[in-house]
Design a protein that fits this description.
With 243 residues, the protein is α/β, with parallel strands linked by helices. The protein has 2 domains: 3-31 and 231-242, no CATH class; 36-227, NAD(P)-binding Rossmann-like Domain (Rossmann fold), CATH 3.40.50. Helix content is 33%, strand content 15%. The protein has helices spanning 16-21, 36-52, 55-63, 87-96, 119-122, 132-136, 158-163, 181-190, 229-242; strands at 3-5, 25-27, 79-83, 102-106, 125-127, 141-144, 168-172, 193-198, 218-220. The strands form 2 sheets. A 7-stranded parallel sheet has the order 5-4-3-6-7-8-9. It has a two-stranded parallel ribbon with strand order 1-2. Helix 5 (119-122) links the parallel strand 4 (102-106) and strand 5 (125-127). The relative contact order is 0.15.
């Protein structure tokens, strides 16, 4: 074996140290080149609207033949914090701006931005991860799209969630272990967290009996944010050309 080509972005499933010892090259496909970032951004918007408009409760209302229920919320006028302003975060901001929202964002190094984009036109307030708690106090909605590493595991914890306004919403389309399960569960149970929309889980495949699903304000999708016909076709082409 000469190379391991990850069919996607995340490399957490690859033992890099073992590959290095065996002199096996490891490569991945940047999401900005395949449509993956765009697909994930669209899913973030979908989940955001889903929790705001109370998707689960609407499903129940249809079954019970209740018209005009539930009363949802608009995204217009909301303050949205994007945790991790990489390729996906940027595409999310592009799609959020027309909704009439205020956008806050964190990034480890803003000077490292290599994408041609008017950041000042997209982001109302930029900051580093060290200021995430301060930004959390302003946010109505938090969208997590950070890279999972030793520093970011469980970064959305009790301290962070407690800093949010009561009734704020949390969306995660990155990696499940960015969220501290117990903290999220407790804040949903107390009502401090207004809703949760996730495309990734703490363990996958997700346990359909997980008690977090008992909450009517929780929406989960089966890790399909980046899975679209366009992104798969583009990734296949890149792998073919690379190999």
């Amino acid at each position: 074996m000469k190379i391991i080509m990850q069919y996607g972005v995340g490399l957490e499933g690859v033992d890099i140290n073992a590959a290095t010892e065996q002199k096996i090259k490891v490569a991945r496909i940047p999401g900005s080149t395949t449509g993956n970032a765009i697909a994930c951004a669209e899913m973030a918007i979908y989940l955001t609207l889903g929790v705001l408009r109370k998707q689960k409760e609407m499903d129940t209302a249809v079954i019970q033949k209740d018209l005009g229920l539930p009363v949802g919320e608009t995204i217009f006028g909301k303050t949205i914090l994007i945790l991790g302003f990489g390729a996906i975060g940027m595409e999310i901001a592009k799609r959020l701006r027309p909704f009439g929202v205020k956008i806050l964002a964190t990034k480890r190094n803003w000077s490292s931005n290599t994408v041609s984009c008017d950041l000042d036109g997209l982001v109302d307030k930029k900051s580093g991860p060290e200021d995430m708690y301060e930004l959390a106090r302003e946010a109505d909605i938090v969208i997590t799209c950070m890279t999972l590493n030793n520093e970011s595991v469980g970064i959305v914890d009790h301290k962070f969630l407690s800093a949010l306004k009561k009734g704020s919403y949390l969306i995660n389309i990155a990696r499940g272990r960015l969220l501290d399960y117990t903290a999220v569960f407790n804040h949903l149970e107390s009502g401090h967290l207004g809703g949760l929309g996730i495309d990734v889980a703490w363990t996958e495949p997700f346990d359909p009996e997980d008690p977090i699903l008992k909450f009517p304000n929780v929406i989960i999708t089966p890790h399909v944010a980046g899975i679209t016909e366009y992104s798969y076709r583009t990734m296949a082409k890149i792998c073919y050309l690379f190999l």
